[in-house]
Amino acid sequence: MKGKTTQEQKSPVVADPWTQLRPMTGARIALGRAGGSLPTAPLLEFQLAHARARDAVHLPFEAAGMEARLLEQGHTVLRVHSAAPERGVYLRRPDLGRRLDAASRAALADFSVQERRCDAVFVVADGLSPLAVHRHALAVLDRVWQALAGEGWTLAPVVVAGQARVALGDEIGALLAAEQVAILIGERPGLSVADSLGIYLTFAPRVGRTDAERNCLSNIRPEGLGYDEAARALVRLMRRARQLRLTGVGLKDDGGGVMLEREGGAGRKD
Q1: Predicted confidence (pLDDT) per residue in 96-127, tens digit
Q2: What pLDDT, in 10s, does the model give residues 171-208?
């Protein structure tokens, strides 16, 4: 048998000049090409990432397990559900995920009659990645809870919410007469990350609040924004929101302090 020629031995994959940068990021860069297409290995990796993202969205939320873990940590827990009865409806009707179902609304209203107004309520919600909530939510919540309880904050029972969108926290916070609501929720999975946790903070929650009236901490996971850093940032924001009585575009965390945006672009760092 004749040996292969140089032409036959040469790989069809053309390397990208940015290949050396690939270890520095989880983004899909410098994949190379084979003719006019992706090489087989990056294509298979892309398909696997897409499958993982879909699985994260459709993963059943372990609400009972989450409640049990919170009870073990000494929390009082309230379970609620959005107006979206199941996952298919939730994905097709985002508006239903922003409002409580009738039973949950009545239960929270009854509870608030028995309890006095609180400084804050934390909501643990599935969102678009229950996987992220299962993995990361309680680690962050524990750190924040200890910090605020140590400062004398009055905290409502933790609310575990199923089939929830971010704005569901507004109705929960309003019904519990909470000054602030922080919802820990699974973010939309991407093709690099399927388990990213987000936290959205709203001062004076009520139905109808817009995204411009909240602060967001994103990409919370060990490979992104770590638990300690996320907890410190949330506590900083909650302290300043309490003092300034606002959240949203006017309140920004610069990483070392919190900056209040004023008219004309001027700000103050603390």
Answers
A1: 999 999 999 999 998 876 767 899 999 999 99
A2: 999 999 999 999 999 999 988 889 999 999 999 999 99
Question: CA 11 → CA 2, 15, 35, 43, distances in Å?
Answer: 19, 10, 11, 17
Domains of the chain are 63-245 (3.40.50.11240)
Strand pairing partners for 160? 79, 124
| % of the chain beyond a pLDDT of 70 | 89
